[in-house]
Amino acid sequence: MRSNTSVFLLLFSLPITVMAQSARQETTITLPAGVSVDLASASVSPTGDLVAAICTDDMLRVWSAKSGELVRSLKANAGAHSAVQFSADGRLLAVAYEIVAYEKGTIQVFSVDSWKLEQELTSLPLYAVIFSPDSRRLSNTGDLGTEIWDLETQKRMARLSPPFGGSVALSFSPDGRWLATADQDTFVRVYEARTGNSHSSWQGSLLEPTAVAFAAGGKSLVVGRIDKTVSIVDPDAGKIIRELPKQPGLIWSIDVAADGKRALIAYNHGELSDIHHLTLWDLDKGTILTDFQKPGVNLVGGAFAGDHYLFAVVSSNQLTLWSLP
Amino acid sequence: MLTRRDMLQKCAALGSIVIASQFYPEALLAAFQESEKQLRKPTPPNTMGPFYKRLVPVNGVLRSPGDSGIPLDLSGQVFDTRGDVVADATIEIWQTNHRGYYDLQGYRYRGKANVDKSGAYRFESVIPGHYPDKSRICQHIHYLVQAPGYKPLVTQLYFATDPVFEGDPAKNYARDPLLQTPELIRPVMLTGEPNEVHAKVQFELCIERL
């Protein structure tokens, strides 16, 4: 009689073989002894040149994605909630972290050319920070809600809060007009990014959305949930268009390529950590283009850079960059 | 034995309190007594996600006969920051089973309670397990407290007996990356026979007016 364990091992060993041939290891960076990078604490420049990470020794380090050479290190804060993000044009880097738990955060915006501190904003505590596609605005979200900032005036344009709980993911539409939030009260909401006025909302499930990203030039939203579903939603009508086939794990994050047709989905196979499985989808066909699984590593950040997805994983004291074609 | 009111009136008679007002001393003393009521600190918030599920039915008995894990009786009261009972609050809780897994299909170990006139609530459950991925997240129960006219409170209850704290939660609370204060860690009272241990935990909640 074949044991259940054997079936389990057979089922899960096959995709690992496939992924090893489809993803390419680009660069390996050795972190200082005793230093690591927590989940979602790294960002890859959309130009594919740099990778930045908030390290567990409270330092922000920036490396060349090609050579692995350390480009810059700055004092940061690797608290429970921190985030780092390059702008779409790669000129700016936002480094954000909590100052007072559940009360206050800070967002520092650096020029990547000079590493000069361009802006410092006092924000709500946060999970995530993103730039608008034109890099003129910035939005952050966390347990107390979402804020939208005008980077030219350094003024907060809007503060958005669901009736209870906060938000965990954000996405600007490609034209920068709309901002979508994945909210802990189980809604996905779309706001006018300039005013913060509500545009639409969608619920779809009794469980929380964990990832949201505009696709198809802003005509659709890709929404991932904790219940292993990914839905394509009309952001104007707040209605589901269709669902992708059942997903292999809890949805951790979704990134959509500039062409709006491909989406990178990262899965959580544990409860709150263990992010080592990514799939690249053709959204129009609803099919998987590439699959990456590597137990023992954790995804800490990634971005579409040209025609491939470049992402950073961490294991013990190594940060490794991989690319998916 | 002197009541608080008697004591205040005595203070007025002896000159410890000088009443210089056009209002009756009785009314002033009552207002003074009211304002002296013990102010409460709001319960610290804690992260909500990502396993909340909407439309949980009103149900205080989350433990079924034969369930594995240490039976847990969870109770407390809801107050506001002035120390007044909030009698129309609703409390939703959600937690893992004793092995560390949430039920995403149904509503196991998810419950909702309407507090009684004294702001009291009670749930029968089990002590939740650690997440199976061996992360640094301690055993916890999520709370969502809502009442008309009050800010919703999203928080979590932690257990002083969690081995991660090594018996000293005041010192070791920060081992859980999501715990910013030891205030959310509650003592656990064990009762019953050695082969049938029960746990009791009290968690008072304090919410803020809008």
- How many strands appear in the DSSP assignment of chain A? 28
- Which blocks of ≥5 consecutive residues of chain B have pLDDT under 50? none
Strand order of the largest sheet of chain A: 1-28-27-26
**Percent of residues in beta strands of chain A:** over 45%
Shape of chain B: elongated
Structure description:
The complex is a heterodimer of chains A (325) and B (210). Chain A is mainly β and 325 residues long. Chain A has a domain at 40-255: 7 Propeller (Methylamine Dehydrogenase, Chain H), CATH 2.130.10.10. Chain A is 6% helix and 55% strand. In chain A, the strands form seven sheets. A four-stranded antiparallel beta sheet of chain A has the order 1-28-27-26, covered by helices on one side. Chain A has a four-stranded antiparallel beta sheet with strand order 2-3-4-5, with no helix packed on it. The longest helix of chain A has 19 residues, at 4-22. Chain B has helices at 4-14, 25-35, 169-172, and strands at 71-80, 90-94, 110-114, 120-126, 140-146, 153-159, 185-186, 189-193, 196-202, 205-207. Chain B is built from three helices and ten strands; from the N terminus they run ααββββββαββββ. In chain B, the strands form two sheets. In chain B, strands 1, 4, 8, 9 and 10 form a five-stranded mixed beta sheet that branches. Chain B is an alpha/beta fold. Chains A and B meet through loops of A and loops of B.
Give a short overview.
Helices cover 6% and strands 55% of the residues of chain A.
Q: Topology of this structure?
A:
The complex is a heterodimer of chains A (325) and B (210).
Chain A: H1 4-22, E1 24-30, E2 37-44, E3 50-55, E4 59-64, E5 70-75, E6 82-86, E7 92-100, E8 104-111, E9 117-123, E10 128-131, E11 137-142, E12 145-150, E13 155-160, E14 167-172, E15 178-183, E16 188-192, E17 198-202, E18 209-215, E19 220-225, E20 230-234, E21 239-243, E22 250-256, E23 262-268, E24 277-282, E25 287-293, E26 298-305, E27 308-315, E28 318-324
Chain B: H1 4-14, H2 25-35, E1 71-80, E2 90-94, E3 110-114, E4 120-126, E5 140-146, E6 153-159, H3 169-172, E7 185-186, E8 189-193, E9 196-202, E10 205-207
Parallel strand pairs in B: 1-9, 1-10, 6-7
Antiparallel strand pairs in B: 1-4, 2-3, 2-5, 5-6, 8-9
Helix pairs in contact in B: 1-2
